[in-house]
Specification:
This protein has 3 helices and 9 strands; from the N terminus they run αββββαβββββα. The longest helix has 14 residues. It starts with 10 loop residues before the first helix and ends in an 8-residue tail after the last helix. Strand 2 and strand 3 form a beta hairpin. The model has no long low-confidence stretch (mean pLDDT 88). It is an alpha+beta fold. The protein is globular. The strands form 2 sheets. It has a 6-stranded mixed beta sheet. It has one domain: Trna Endonuclease, Chain: A, domain 1 (3-Layer(aba) Sandwich).
Length: 145
Amino acid sequence: MTYEYTQFIKEQELFDFIKKYFIKDLLPSDNPTSRYDCYSPLFRSHIELKCRRKHYTKLIIEKSKYDAMMERCDKEGTIPIYINSTPRGVWAFYLTGIKFKWEERSLPSQTDFAKTHHIKKIVSYLDTTKGKDLLFILPLLPTTL
């Protein structure tokens, strides 16, 4: 099987890709303003999805979203996963056990909406070399998908 990767612009595209090729039982969060994007009952995972228009070797994660995800996962006994796409690929990270170095940065309040004024956010970074490149795994999948 050959998969022709085209950059994902919307999280729905990334969601559909993950559901088709990796997590068949993937479900969207119950609330569109939830602090996580989707979950898998089979893999007992809550997942945050991000699509970046540019490639970065260090992918940003917001502390407020991280904290909310970790709290939910602790409460429900699920695994926290962060999946981020860029023009060069799709990386997945298991967040449990990662030691983050948090810092305050001035960043756009929202990336894809009209509110692009800057606000202070506490963020950290995930190095792509520490994640799993899902595109690299695709040739290993059965061709019966």
